Amino acid sequence: MSLVEVSRDGGVATVTLSRAEKRNAVSSDVAAAIAAAFGELSTDDSLRVVCLNGAGPSFCAGADVREMATLDPSSAAAFIRGLHRAIQSVMECPVPVVAAIHGACVGAGLELVAGADLRIAADDAHFSMPEVLVGIPSVIEAALLPRLIGRGRSARLVLTGETITAPVAERWGLVEEIVPHADLAGRAAALVRAIDGADPAAIRAQKVLCRQWDTLSIDDAVEASVASFAACYETDAPRQRMAAILGRRG
Q1: What is the CA radius of gyration of the chain?
Q2: Which terminus of the chain is more exposed, N or C, with fewer CB under 10 A?
Q3: pTM of the model
């Protein structure tokens, strides 16, 4: 069985962490499989949106502790760079990635969903960054957390290793929505359909801008937005869509 399963329905891809017997713990092989899956999807011009989820009782129990227990300084650097490449492949995917989270979302799993564009959680989801409890700091894409939830809350997670519930995660801004576990797949699918129904070129442009907003100054972000807006009119797609809207209005 593949460590990461990819399925397609038209322009919609679903990427599933499939190491359920290990609660989808991220080993070097799993990290490589995530990077390969998103790398291949990113070359497909017909791709519209990706849903990221986990098989079994948990989304992801974090990095593989059995593998980490065998590391030395050299192999530790290689291990964590492999995990970084996996999360970067999610962030650099040219279309939105929607994370559907249930059960445990721990350490590397939390960093993985922090790299997604949207996050929806089941009411049984719980989140933690417990690395300091096993003798290592939280690193790489843990650096995304202050932008999502603020410096103080990020520091609380990475310094204490405590677990927070889905309602707390929503209140902090870590996830955008909570649904009953039984409704997670359906609600994630509805969100994916909403993105799939938008103009594909506009969605790709918007994803680029959303990423730029994380790093650019306001003035530079505005200028990037102006250029992106103007570039959309290099095709007839905006005019056609607007004409169709005006036609429906009469």
Answers
A1: 19
A2: C
A3: 0.95
